[in-house]
Amino acid sequence: MAFVDVDTLLQKCTFQSLSLLHIKQLHAHLTTTGLSRFCPSRSKLLELCAAAAASYADAVLRRIPSPDTNDWNAVVRGLAHSRQPSASVTCFRVMSRAPHKPDALTCSFALKACARALAWSEATQIHSQLIRYGFEADFLLQTTLLDVYAKSGDLDNAQQVFDEMHQRDIASWNALIAGLAQGSRPNEALELFKRMKLEGWKPNEVTVLGALSACSQLGAARDGEKIWVYIRGEKLDLNVQVCNVVIDMYAKCGFVDKAYWVFENMSCCKSIVTWNTMIMALAMHGDGYRAIELFEQMGQAGVCPDDVSYLAALCGCNHAGLVEDGFRLFNSMEGCGVRANVKHYGSVVDLLGRAGRLEEAFGIVNSMPMVPDVVLWQTLLGACKTHGNVDLAEQVSRKVVEMGSNTCGDFILLSNVYAANQRWDDVGRVREAMKNRDVKKIPGFSYTEVGGVIHTFVNGDQNHSSWRDIYRKLEEVRFRIESYGYVPETNYVLHDIGQEEKENALSYHSEKLALAFGLISTREGSPIQVIKNLRICGDCHAVIKLVSKIYGREIIVRDRARFHRFKEGLCSCRDYW
DNA sequence: CTAGGGTTAG
Question: In this predicted structure, what is the pLDDT of residue A576?
């Protein structure tokens, strides 16, 4: 065998580039050249073994006469990257009892493993261990720790670690900003981002990823726009990931055209995520045709669609009611080497169900190769409600309850199906069941931004400082839309109360309050944006259509699933949603 | 006494 510098060669290997066979060959080679003496390759070999097969790493480690901290570290690190990251923590524990104690790096690797495994309690154990070892002042370790806490859902502890740090750098800030954004605390993420800038830090590409993700969730267009200006000034848009979140941010703030502009004018190469983000953006805005078009362009550009691309395109078909296109797309997946997952199934079931093809939808659910999840059954239940199919609704809601759903919405759907068929006894039965089961009701809320301030409303809310003006405005709206033939659609209200009370319950839905506030506090003729955490209600949809016409306003509503753009009495969803 | 640590999109 010709001379090769094994050390140099091995340093270049990644976990993915080596098979177990390769590793064994290297092992054999190293054994002949002497594994007992330390060389960088020994660590690398251990690490690669650990990443590929824990038992093999164990065997190699055993063959080393007296493994030192470096050797152990290599194994802990390798295991952290393996398919079983929890094995890394186990190894860390074994090492704690071995002659060579863990050092700061060992803790770091083991904590990374916890982050991958979302192992909160293991992380807390390592946390107390590292205090015992005296590494608590190591700020790199603190950043890792902060990140693990955030990723495993313990944002309070993440925040605390951050607060107690005596030294921070940009990565520490980034870790917490990203953590808060990904942990559904986008307000706090944005606040921290602003504080960071006040304290004189210069955001880098990682920072803006977290901050923009927060803007997307909030629909905070102004903040998002400012960050985009900063990004361009600092040329951070040379980074694809940054461009991708900008596209996503604009789309989720309602500006699909700006999203498309960024997509078209990128100064770096598009990745598959870029395409998927843009297809999803068009889908969310109900532009199914353009979503499909972009999906096809993507293929022509030589980018092979993956499961997310298909999901995005399917979603576009869903929101636009393109039943045939969606069905065709779904059926073409396999031929393109992409296996449908439960979300794809959910999507076609939704597509067929809403088009009234309930039998076909049910057939797919019953023949799909994986277990349908609750969401899928809920989708089908929604379709049953839309098309008033009582028999199927009963079957499906039984499934939903069996799967442990305890949300108000599912009961209401079934109750509505009965109500639509005047089966009041059954309506009462469902209501009894709701009382007995202590069902969870997800509180609905809506918000709108006026002059850079977010105003939030819940149903029947009287907490806003201008609530009297808001309610007065709603009276006026009511009066004016009635002359256009508006009749309240009270079957969206579940409670067994009188017609007038039902109308009142509807009248003060959070999205109507936000809309009325928008009407009284923004310039006439300017657009109004409303964001709602749940799906928009049918009555509100009808009201907002009329308002857009009578008041000459463009009203953009982002609900849980998509955008509704109301203009001149029509909605971009064409009443299909 | 080798080299090895933290933050990153759909």
Answer: 83
Phi-psi region at A356: left, alpha or beta (left = phi > 0; alpha = psi -120 to 50): left
Helix A186-198, helix A205-218: angle, nearest 10: 140
Question: Tokens 């923590």 — which residue?
Answer: A89
Q: Which two tokens stand for residue A34?
A: 């002497």
Of the candidates A414, A436, A569, A553, the residue with the CA atom closest to the CA atom of residue A494: A414
Strand B at less than 7 A from CB of A115: yes
Residues A192 and A82 in one domain: no
pLDDT tens string A315-347 = 999 999 999 999 999 999 999 999 999 999 999
A385-425 pLDDT, tens per residue? Answer: 888 888 888 888 888 878 877 788 788 777 877 887 788 88
Last residue of a domain, one of A248, A269, A290: A269
Which CATH number is A257's domain given?
A: 1.25.40
Round to a whole number and report the distance in Å from the CA of A333 to the C1' of B8: 30
Give a yes or no: residue A317 inside a domain. no
How far, in Å, CA of A288 to CA of A559, rounded?
Answer: 18
Q: Do A199 and A115 reside in the same domain of the chain?
A: no
The domain in which residue A480 lies consists of: 445-571
- Global pTM reads 0.90
CB proximity A178–strand B (7 Å threshold): yes
Q: What is the CA radius of gyration of chain A?
A: 28
Q: Is the CB of A405 under 7 A from strand B?
A: no
* pLDDT level of residue A374 (50, 70, 90 thresholds): confident
Contact between the CB of A165 and strand B at under 7 Å: no
If asked whether residues A50 and A182 sit together in one domain, one would say: no
A165 nearest nucleotide via C1' and CA? B6
* CB of A388 closer than 8 Å to CB of A417: yes
Question: Residue A453 domain-assigned?
Answer: yes
If asked whether residues A548 and A500 sit together in one domain, one would say yes
Q: Report the number of distinct structural domains present in chain A.
A: 3
User: Is the C-beta atom of A466 closer than 7 angstroms to strand B?
Assistant: no
Separation between the CA of A202 and the C1’ of B9 (whole angstroms): 20
Instruction: Identify whether residues A16 and A148 lie together within a single domain.
Output: yes
The verdict on A149 and A194 lying in the same domain is no
| CB-based burial label for A521 (10 Å; 0-12, 13-18, 19+) | middle
Residue A260 vs residues A105, A241, A251, A328, A573: alpha-carbon distances, Å: 44, 16, 9, 26, 19
- Quick one: A465 and A450 in the same domain? yes
Strand B at less than 7 A from CB of A273: yes
In this complex, the residue with its CA at the shortest distance from the C1' of nucleotide B2 is: A40
**A367 within domain boundaries:** no
Strand A570-571 versus strand A563-567 pairing type: antiparallel
**Rounded to whole angstroms, how far apart are CA atoms A469 and A488?**
22
Which of A253, A269, A285 is the endpoint of a domain? A269
**For residue A288, is it within any domain?**
no
* Residue A155 and residue A224 in one domain: no
Of residues A47 and A275, more confidently modeled:
A275
Hunting for tokens 């971009």 — which residue is that? A572
Q: Which residue is nearest to nucleotide B1 (CA to C1')?
A: A38
